[in-house]
Description:
The structure holds two protein chains of two kinds. Chain A is elongated, with a radius of gyration of 32 Å. Helices cover 75% and strands 8% of the residues of chain A. Chain A starts with a helix and ends in a 5-residue tail after the last helix. Chain B has two domains: 144 residues, P-loop containing nucleotide triphosphate hydrolases (Rossmann fold); 66 residues, no CATH class. The C terminus of chain B is likely disordered. Chain B contains eight helices and ten strands.
Amino acid sequence: MSNWLNQHIQTLKLVLKRMQANTLSTFMICLVIGVAMCLPSLFYLAVDNLSKLTDHIQKDTEISLFLNVEAGAGAIKTIERQLAQNEEIERFHLVTKEEAWKQLQLKSQSNQDVNDAVSQLGKNPLPDAFFIQAKSADPDSLIQLKDTLQNLPNVELALLNTEWVKRLSSLLSLGKKLISMIAGLLAIVLLVIIGNTVRMQILTQKDEIEVSNLIGATSSFIRMPFLYAGALYGLFGGLMAVLMLIGIIHVFNLSMSQIAHLYSNDFSLSLFNLQLFLAVIIIAVCIGWAGSYIAVSRAIASYKIN
Amino acid sequence: MIQFDKVTKRYPGSDEILKNISFNIDAGEFVFLTGHSGAGKSTLLKLIAATERPTSGTVLIANQNVSQLKPSAIPFLRRRFGLIFQDHKLLYDRNCFENVILPLHINGISGQEAAKRVRAALDKVGLLHKEKAMPITLSGGEQQRLAIARAVVSRPSILLADEPTGNLDASYAADIMAIFYAFNQVGVTVIMSTHDALGMSTAQNRVLHINQGSLSEPLLNTSNFNQESSSIERFTS
Lengths: 306, 237
């Protein structure tokens, strides 16, 4: 047992020593793996964060209830009471036609054309309106709520804009499918890159494989250092990918916070997605191991006796 | 120890390299394998070391039929041999000590025990003071001695040497031969191919001569005499 362990430690030391001796080429290989792992991860992060954002937006979805222009104070009171009794409604507020008119005048001041149009209107054309926040964020139940509200007396129009939310979420699910395809393709690329790298290494260590084979090394003994090398390339490449991801997200968040500030929105990419980082590293190690296994097995097969 | 029975070897698309060869080598013998270049000496050694399989006939090594061995068993058969090549096949990316320790790692021996045995092997070939040197800095004779150290470090019972002195001048060659004789004295079977048997062999050696794929045993001696002498030497040494 200790002998077995010792052999593995010896092999690992040998492999690390070789990597140290070829720092630049090792770095290049890890960089390639890092970039290849980084791309789908970044894409995943983007889609993941966007879907979080749409959840947020869906929660913010309001139903606007415009009353008849003729509806008096009594009708408003009745509707207000009905809304307060409705279990599905989280909160609501009333904007009377006078308030809306004032707001419109205030906002249009900065724009000359709109200001002209508004002042030409003369009298207030706006209705009283309720803005309602539902408890549920589910588009279907929102539509149902909208329909019941529409049927209330004195309601001119109940307005709910869920269409674009629906479109966004279907786009997002398309994006998720796209990620898995891109990730699959890049996994194949990685397998080939690492396999090829190990094959190149095998060429430089052809003598060692041949001599080991001649003096009675088993296939697993010959394979071991190459498997370690492949797994280590994967490990370092994965770590590099994680570093790149952190860097990119950091830079992105810096500029994002400016934009989000303009929209008075508190949005940033969640940085420490530990699960994603672990997944990236583990997948890279597995691919590295598999790639070198394929390459070295082919090389050993060429020394089989005939 | 090594039995060939009607062994024929043919590579795809070539004539028969070895034709119907039968012989028997006992433990402790010192056998020269002679013949012209291309006569089939190397092929015969490859058949013994199980790097080639016979086209027909049987090769028995320590009563194991090489043709019937599973691929996974062949490495363990090869560990019985110490192989020495004309071109040394040293690994030039590591120093002498690391070259010699390779067979021990393959056998799962490491640490102090391995280091002790490596130094003992280097001492036997007179290279103990060069253990940290890289093989490329050694002379041709020293490189061949290093290859011998690597072949004997795992204490094989059979040494197979393919023209070990082929590229060396006479004085280096004599050094190498002295080392082989010393191993033979302690009971190691030595099989050595050479195209220059007359310069090497003494009356005690058995000689297998290959000519155009056929084997003959010139009458330099008899194998009985050889066995007797080697066992006496073993007894007295």
